[in-house]
Specification:
By secondary structure, this protein is an alpha+beta fold. The chain has a domain at 44-144: Endonuclease/exonuclease/phosphatase (Deoxyribonuclease I, Chain A, 4-Layer Sandwich), CATH 3.60.10. Helices cover 30% and strands 25% of the residues. It contains three helices and six strands, in the order αβαβαββββ. A four-stranded mixed β-sheet has the order 1-2-4-3. Helix 2 (65-75) crosses helix 3. The longest helix has 26 residues, at 2-27. It is extended.
Length: 156
């Protein structure tokens, strides 16, 4: 009986928390989400496309690429970093689905894994370096030249 009461109390607590924080998120939205300030900005999207580890194949699935491309387009980011890509054809299909918006791309297979990482950019990048890590996965380091949009001063 105590276990049932504890579960009911936890359910009520989580329900109230979800309502409270959902309400706060709604109140904080800007009327136009793409215009958050008058300062020059750029967006960066980092996304691990893989599934849970207990899946037979936890890499990104071809059937999800249309939804992934739609989410990337909606995010409206200038730079996109992707992990857990299954094969090079997925990056080519994503590029087609995004209608060539990201002209600059880097793609690398990990030294010790069957997964790929990718980087998509509207801006040219100077250098890409594959970096071995101690956790069994590898990273892709990119140096991007972001065009200057003038001096941004910190408010006093």
């Amino acid at each position: 009986m105590k276990a049932k009461l504890l579960l009911v109390a936890m359910f009520a607590f989580f329900g109230i928390g979800a309502w409270h924080f959902g309400r706060l998120r709604t109140l904080q939205k800007h009327p136009n989400p793409h215009v958050l300030s008058s300062r020059p900005t750029f967006g960066l999207l980092s996304w691990n496309l893989g599934y849970f580890d207990y899946e037979a194949d936890s890499r990104a699935q071809d059937r999800d690429l249309k939804a992934i491309a739609a989410a990337i387009a909606e995010a409206d980011a200038r730079l996109v970093a992707l992990q857990e890509i299954a094969h090079p054809g997925q990056l080519a299909l994503l590029s087609d689905l995004l209608e060539g918006r990201y002209r600059y791309r880097a793609f690398a297979r990990g030294f010790r894994t069957d997964r790929f990482v990718a980087f998509l950019s509207e801006d040219p990048f100077e250098e890409e370096v594959q970096v071995a890590t101690s956790v069994g996965r590898d990273a892709l380091a990119i140096t991007v030249s972001i065009p200057s949009q003038g001096m941004v001063r910190r408010p006093k």
